[in-house]
Amino acid sequence: MNFKSILTQNKRVAVVGISANPDRPSHWIAKYLVEQGYDVIGVNPGKPKVDFVKVVATLADAAPLEIVDVFRSPDAIPAIVEECKTLGAKILWLQPGAENPVAEKTARSYGIEVISGPCIYQEHRRM
Prior knowledge:
Elements: H1 3-9, E1 12-16, H2 25-35, E2 39-43, E3 55-56, H3 59-62, E4 67-70, H4 77-87, E5 91-94, H5 101-109, E6 113-116, H6 120-126
Parallel strand pairs: 1-2, 1-4, 2-3, 4-5, 5-6
């Protein structure tokens, strides 16, 4: 998988499960991506206040979608895959701990590129 081409060709990132807590990876990774010039939008139904990025309740509110970066539990992934299909997301990036092999297979069958396990922050830092 060519992370460099994915991360240089796609600049809009929806961070699903963003937290207002600066100690949470979803928070500081989203902030890092903003600092690197990405167009980041947070997705969390509770719509927590995050100073550096707009937060919306649903993926539909975050469209158009390029990279959907997910910080959720594996049981939440099937519904996110269905939303990604409906909304035309290009890439589903499942952060460590969000992996769901069955949902990943479904996403691939829909033509969505899936990255499962590697951290978007770590891969960007390696570039």
